Amino acid sequence: MQRRAVTAVLAAAALLLTAGCSSGDGGTAGGGDTSASPSGTAASSPPTGAAEQTPPAKGSVKVVRTVATGLNSPWGLAPLTDGDLLVSSRDEATITRVDGKTGRKTELGEVPGVSPAGEGGLLGIALSPEYASDHMIYAYFTSASDNRVVRMIYDERKPAGQQLGAPDTVFRGIPKGMIHNGGRIAFGPDRMLYAGTGESGDTGLSQDKESLGGKILRLTPDGEPAPGNPFPGSAVYSYGHRNVQGLAWDGKQRLFASEFGQNTWDELNAIEPGANYGWPEAEGRSDDSAFKNPVEQWSTDEASPSGIAYAEGSIWMAGLRGERLWRIPLKGTEASADPQAFLEGEYGRLRTVAAAGGDKLWLVTSNTDGRGNPKKGDDRILELEVS
C-alpha cells in the first residue's frame, strides 16, 4: 500500500474554494453511512453520555415519499447539511447530486480511473470530516489494478459535469476481483476513515493480517494507518471477513458491520479492534473461541446484506437478494429481540441505507446492477420514517 500527500495545487484549490463558498450481491456469489456523522453531513449521534435505552421489540417502517427515480446502478450515498444527497453510480463512475425536496438530479462529474466490472466500480462515498471548509469527497473504487480510496474537491461554482477536481489517491493496494470488492467507507466518531474490503474471491486473504483483503481498515484522512490501530504500522482494524458491505456506529460510538456469507449465513457483526471474524474457517456462529460470533445471522436468500444505518435504537440493514429491510434492535452490542423484516419484495433489491436524522432514513434500491429486475422508475431513493 502506498499513500501520497495532497499536491500543492490541490491544497491551493481548496483554500480558494473555502474563500469563495461555503453480491456476490447474492449469497452464493458474494455504511455508508455514519450515524455519528462528520461535519457536513445531516445526521448525528446522541452524546456518548446519553442514557442507553432498549428499543421496543417491535418497530415500524413507513415510506414517506420517493425522493428520486431514474438512477443507474446507485451504490454510495452521502447526505449534505442542506438536505440534498450525493449518490455514486457503480457502473457509470459518476457522482450525482439529488435535490432532497424535488428529486432533481445534477451530475457533478465522472471519476477518472474507475474500471467497472462485475461487482467493482465506483462504490462507497463519504464527506471529509472538514467538509464545511475543504469540500472534499472521498470515494472507494475499483481501478484496473486494485481497489483504492481517493478524495476530490467538489466545486459547486463550476458547470454541471465539471464540478469534481482531480482525484488524489490517499490509499491503494486493496485486492480487486470480479466479486468481493467490499467498498463501503465512512468517517467514524473519531474522525478516522473506515473502509470495508472483500477478499476478492481469494479466501486465504481474510486470515492473512498482512493482506488488505477481507478486512475493515482504519485510516487517517490522509490515508495513513490510524493511531491506536491494533497491529502496529498496519491499517488493519479487524480481519477474517468475507465481504464487508455496511458500516455504522450506534449512539455509544460502537461500530457494526454487515457481511456477505457464502451459501449459508450472512452476518451483522459488532466490531472490536484486532478481532478475528472467522472467514473462511467459520461462516456465521462458531464454537471456536478464536473467532468473534455475529450479533445476528441470516440465510443468504433472506439477506445478502449491503448498507446499514443506526436509528431509533436499532441497526437497519438493506438486503439485496433478500429484497427487504431488516431491523435489529440492540441492547449494547447484542440483539435485544428477534430481527424484523420490512418492505419485503416491494422495491426489489436494496443497496444502501443511511441515517437522515431522528427517526428518518434514506434507502437506495439496486435493481439496475445487472442482478435485479428493473421496474419503471428504478433505481430510486426513498425517505423512510422508522421506529
TrEMBL record:
Residues 34-51 have a biased composition (Low complexity). PROSITE patterns: PROKAR_LIPOPROTEIN. Residues 71-371 form the Glucose/Sorbosone dehydrogenase domain. Residues 27-59, 366-387 are annotated as: Disordered. InterPro entries: 6-blade_b-propeller_TolB-like (IPR011042), Glc/Sorbosone_DH (IPR012938), Quinoprot_gluc/sorb_DH_b-prop (IPR011041). It comes from the Bacteria. The keyword Hydrolase does not apply. Residues 1-24 form the signal peptide. Residues 375-387 have a biased composition (Basic and acidic residues). Keywords: Signal. Gene3D superfamilies: TolB, C-terminal domain. This is Glucose dehydrogenase. It comes from Streptomyces griseoflavus Tu4000.
